[in-house]
Known about the structure:
Blueprint: H1 8-40, H2 46-79, H3 89-99, H4 106-118, H5 135-148, E1 156-157, E2 171-173, E3 184-189, E4 192-194, E5 197-200, E6 202-206
Parallel strand pairs: 2-6
Antiparallel strand pairs: 1-4, 3-6, 4-5
Helix pairs in contact: 1-2, 1-5, 2-3, 2-4, 2-5, 4-5
Family: Belongs to the MIEAP family.
Keywords: Coiled coil, Cytoplasm, Lipid-binding, Membrane, Mitochondrion, Mitochondrion outer membrane
GO molecular function: lipid binding
Amino acid sequence: MRTWSPARPGRVNASHRARLIARFGFIYAQERLDAETLLKAFICNTETVQRIIYIAAVESFRAAKKAFWKIKISVKETLALDHMGPESLEVAALDYIARHKDLYDVCQSVQEVVCSMNMNPKIPYPPDIDFFVICTLIRELCCLAFSMQTLIPPLDIAVGVDGELFKRTMYYRSCDSDFTASFVAYHVWPPLMENGAVIVKGEVVTKK
C-alpha cells in the first residue's frame, strides 16, 4: 500500500496546477481560434466574433464554479458523516471531487452557458446561429474551470469591463490595437488569476 509523505499532497497539487495552466494556454492558442473559424462562417465581423468567444469563456467559468459549489456542499455533507482526518474536511472534499470527475454534469453547464449567451446584452445583435456551434470550446472551458476549483488555492479568471484602463501586467494587446491608446475597447481573452495575482495574461484590443 502506497504511503503518502507530508510533502506528497503538495507535489500532487503543484503538478495538477501546472497541467491545468498549460491546458488554459492551449485552449487560448488553439481551440479559441478553432471556435473563431466556426463563428466566422456565420458572422463576418471579427470584433463580434471575439466578443462572443470572450463571453463564452466568462460564462463557462461562471457556470462551472456554480456547479462546483453545489457539488462541494453535497460531498462535504456526505464525508462529514465519518470523516476522521488527518486532513481537514474541506481538503478531503476537494480531493474527492478531483478523483471523481463524473460528479460533474458538464452537459448541463454547456446548456446553461448557451442560454446565458442567447440573453447576453453585450452580444451586439441577435445571432442568426446557434451558439452550440462552439459547444466544444464551451465544454472544454467548463471542464477546465471545474478542475481549477479543486486546487488550493483555486484558479479563476478576471472579468474585465469595456473602457477600463489598460494594464500591462494583466493583458497583452491584440495586433490590431492602437498601441498608443490607454483604454480597453473590448476583451479577447481573460487573464488567469491565483489569489489576485496574474498567472497568465489575457488579451484585449485597445483603441482611442
